[in-house]
Structures are given as C-alpha cells and as structure tokens.
Protein 1
Amino acid sequence: MRQTTPRFTETELAAINEKLEADSTEDILQWVDETFGNTAAQMSSFGLEDQALFHIYWGVNKNARLMTLDTLRLPTETYSLFDQTKLRYKVDVEFFYPNMDSVAEMVKEKGNNFFYMGRANREFCCGVRKVEPLGRALSTLGAWVTGLRRDQGMDRGSINIVEWDAAHNNYKVNPLANWSFDQVQSFVKENEIPYNELHDKGYPSLGCAPCTRAIEPGEDIRAGRWWWEGDPDAKECGIHVVQALES
Ligand code: SF4
C-alpha cells in the first residue's frame, strides 16, 4: 500500500540525493524498486527521454510499471509507438484517459479547438485532458519516475533526483536528471529503442497533435509547443508546473 506522508526527513532525503547523484541510472532505479516496490511506476510521455528511461527500468525490473496519459488528441505516430513499445517490452501499459463527461461538457460549451483562443482556454483544456487524469493516476502511487533532465531548462534546471511531491503526496524520481540530450539520442540509437518517428521530422518535443508543430533549425527545442502563444515562459502544460510529463 502506498504511504501518503513523507517517509524521509529532509536530512535523510538530502543524503539519499547525495548518494544517488553519484550512482548510475540503473542503481537509481534499483533503489526505486527496493524502496517503493510496485507502488512505483514510470509516468511516460513516450518522448525520447522516457523511451530511454523505460528501457533501463525494464532492464532492472521486467515487471516495471509504465503509465501514460491518452488525451485523445495525440498524433497517430504516438499511438503507433504505444503499440511498438508494448510489443518490444511485453509491458501492459497503464493508460489514463480524461473524464469523458468533462470532455463532452467542455467540447459542447467551448468547441473542439477552443484552446487556440488564449492561454486560459489552453490551460483549461490541458487541465481536463492532462492534469486531472495525471492526478488520478498519481494518487495510486508511492513514487513516480520521470524522464526530466536538468538541461531542459525552465523549472527543470533545479530538480533533484528524488523529491517529495507535495501536490501528489508521493515521491517524484528523476533518474535522467544529469543526462544530456545527446546522451539520450545516442542511447536510443545504440540500443535500437523504439521512438516516435516524428522526432525525425522536426518534432523534438511532442504532445497533442493540434498543439505541436515541427521546429526550424536553431529554434528552441520547445518552440513547437503552443507556438501561437509566443511566450517562452508558457511552455509547460501544468503537469510539471504543479510539481513536473512532457517530453
Ligand atoms: S496540449 Fe492542446 S489539445 Fe492537448 S490538452 Fe493541452 S490544449 Fe488540449
């Protein structure tokens, strides 16, 4: 059963992080396994980082749990990657969907593509399709494992390997915190890990189909997300802002 209060003091957590900073990614995931058992799961966006991470997690534990959110607006290529990943690792991916009553009400009141009309509308849609299902998924876990990296910028620059996630009453573990994007790319290639074919078509960062475009050479890696908003500080969907799933 999951524990809903911190099991480590701040001092203990600092010592754990100091040790894990020097450990390999495999060792970090081994620690997750030993500490949280099957109350831990990777919450994956199926981006490049998450695919690399699950490959390692699966190597540590063939029964590692893999969760994702299906917003019902994802690109076809992402749905294909779900199937490829299930085949490769024989994993029973745990899909979380938006509350269908909320989706029906939202679409009835606002329309199908209302998120193009202002940031508040976009955040409302992300709230229904991502943040609420994420909260529902995480409420079942003692720890969630993410593919966040420090050099992705924004709020991610200061992440620890293990953090108490007060918003979800569990621990968030970021085993790839010290990885670079080049490392991730090389690892995926060397290990022939399935990845989203859109990454080869100018989409370094992926999300819902209507809210993601390809980027031009030299553009910021997340410039293709909610591009119409034009605000570089607004490139998070609420998930990583409230304590951090998006590739
Ligand atoms: S990314 Fe776009 S379609 Fe997906 S939940 Fe957010 S606003 Fe809605």
Note: The beta strands are 40-43, 66-69, 94-96, 143-145, 162-165, 170-173.
Protein 2
Amino acid sequence: MLGDVLGRAGRKIAKKIIPQFKQSLDIDFVTINGENLAGGFGITSKIYDEMKLSGVDAFTMGNHWRDKSDVHLIRQQHKDLVLPQNLNGISGVEYAPEFHLPHRNKTINIINLMGNFAMKEEYKNPFEFLQKEKEHFISKVKSGSNIVIADIHAEASSEKQAMAWYYDGILAALIGTHTHTPTSDERLTENGTAFLTDVGMTGPYDSVIGMNKTRVLTKFINPSVKLPHEVAENDLWLCGFLVEVSPQTNLSLACHRIQCRGVDEENWLISSIV
Ligand SMILES: [Fe+2]
Ligand SMILES: [Fe+2]
C-alpha cells in the first residue's frame, strides 16, 4: 500500500518502484491512494491507465476524489477505483469491493472510509459502516476466503487508531492516509492486524504537504490573496506499508513501514529500501 501519490513527481516514483516491488518481493496485490495523482487534485483517465500499466491493482481515494470529472467515467468502467464507503449522496459506494487472487484462492475486500474531523465536507459516520459490516467481515475472514484491508482517510490520528482497534483481529491491515505526513508507529497487534496511523505521501517533501511552500506561506500570511496552489517537485520520498498475510488466518504475520527519503528518481534501486 502506498500513501497519497502526489502529482507528476509522485507518479514517477510509484511507476518506477511498483514493478520492481512486485517482481523482487513476489507481491500479490498493490494499492495506492490516488486522490492526489493529477496535479495534487483527483485522478484522470490517462493517469488511471498509466498507473494500471505500472502494476497498481486497486486505487483508494479520499476527500479529493471528485476534483477531476474523469473520476465518474473511471468508476463506471473500472471497479478497482475504490471510493470511500461513507460518502454522502453517492450511490454504489456502500460496500467494500472484492478483488480475487485466483492463484492464492483468496479474495481481498478493500475498506476505504473518510474521517470527519477537520474536513470541508461532512461524511457519514465511518463507525456506523464498520458496526453494520462487522459480523459480515468476521465470518468472511474466519471462513478462510477473505482478507480485509482498510485505507482510513482522516486528519485525526484518534479516528484512525480507534478504527484500527475496533477491527483488531478482523483486518489484515489498516493504513491511515490524508495528512501527507508519515508516522512511525507501525505495529502488528496480538490479534494479527498490521497498523500504521499515517503512511505519508509519495511525492515531493520540499513543500507544505506536497504544494509549493512559497505559495502556501503567502496564502497563510495574506488569507485574502487568491493564488492557486502549485505542486512542488523536489525532495521525493516514497512512503508505503508492506504486509505479509497468513493464508491460514487471513491476518498478518509481519509488516514493514517503507520510507525512502530523497529518492534519486533516475537511479532508483529497490535495494536502497529493502
Ligand atoms: Fe491526499
Ligand atoms: Fe485527503
């Protein structure tokens, strides 16, 4: 799972690393948070195609999910674009979609939920979704057929951590996204849930959460100034979370936080992080 992949620079690193990861580490399934792929805001059809070619199996989203209108067409055509299940007034998002891994005889469910703290829009209470689906997911995991993973897209660490504990022993993995700032609290609980409060952004860190720092500062200092954001380009970091799942329990055996700072995108080698 890679955190919010941001703009051209983020895409470039992700496209380079994902095929290497899949090949060298025998990775079955790659998800990325795709809400910032297109210049920091949303996703386009062209970018969706590019990322699929690099080996992305599924995309999760967040508050920027509809910043580009292409998203409506993409979601009609492809079920691997996962939208948060607690969006208000959007039909067809209410269930965590299933992805089949035939060679492992497994199905992966992806939960993607929005937190409500400090968001511009209001979302349905994510805990209501989790409460409603809890028994369903417990039986799927226990039956041996399904692995359940979650991307919780939220500003508040408290919301993300509470959700992880609520689904402890049900989820193979939960990663937090949205803040674009990685935390270093990765853990594997006694009950087999791998968890990281925020995986961070894959993109330019010579910035304020991915955006040109001079422009952001100007806007903070002079709030009346109308100045569009501009994506930053320098100091690229790759941030992700690698999870090893037991075929017996459908829960995790190990997890690794991946954080590579100052990626030289021309001379990138998987050996530099693993
Ligand atoms: Fe984001
Ligand atoms: Fe976000």
Note: The longest strand covers residues 236-245.
